[in-house]
Write a structure and sequence with these properties.
single chain, 185 residues, mainly alpha, 6% strand
């Protein structure tokens, strides 16, 4: 991954890191951190701390708050410390994470439900969560929006219906799915 990212111009490198962040594999963290450090100052690089935080922190915290750091040079060390903690916790860095825990479809649905009425940032994350949930389950989530307006009650109904269904029990944590089918590693 590192060699590919190094050969890209800043815009392509940042888009590549966006994809890695959305993927959520802990092993991608060093590449994202190096790219962020190398391309700091490019406007699009500002999203990378949010991906790192989304992968590694239970709630958005210091990894997402890059702008508040007086010395940006300490940011990579902070991220890599958290990376090492999570690597020890899970015994490897070849794990899929969402908010510092193994990615799971059921925990994702529960997080989505909890965030329906929360802050702007949480609402801004709904499309990210929705894409992960919809692709994993194959459940049609188009009702989340009507005329480009988020519909929290419809979203809640869809998510609760999934969580109460027998289908929810088929999903294992730490495993990727596409339309309900396990993706082999």
């Amino acid at each position: 991954m590192k060699d590919m990212e190094e050969s890209l111009d800043p815009d392509k490198a940042i888009r590549f890191c966006n994809a890695l962040g959305a993927w959520g594999r802990l092993s991608a963290v060093p590449t994202i951190v190096e790219s962020y450090d190398r391309h700091f100052g490019f406007q699009d690089a500002e999203v990378l701390p949010f991906y790192l935080s989304t992968m590694m922190e239970m709630e958005w915290g210091p990894l997402a708050e890059r702008a508040s750091w007086e010395d940006v040079s300490t940011y990579p060390d902070l991220v890599m410390e958290k990376y090492e903690v999570l690597k020890r916790k899970f015994g490897a860095d070849e794990v899929l994470l969402l908010h510092g825990e193994l990615f799971g479809v059921v925990p994702l649905a529960r997080r989505m439900l909890r965030s329906l009425g929360d802050s702007y940032f949480e609402k801004a994350m709904q499309p990210f969560y929705r894409r992960r949930f919809e692709a994993s389950t194959g459940i049609d989530c188009s009702g989340f929006y009507k005329d480009r307006e988020f519909q929290p009650l419809t979203a809640a109904s869809i998510l609760e219906g999934f969580l109460e269904s027998p289908q929810a029990t088929q999903y294992e944590e730490g495993v990727r799915y596409f339309f309900g089918h396990r993706i082999p590693e």
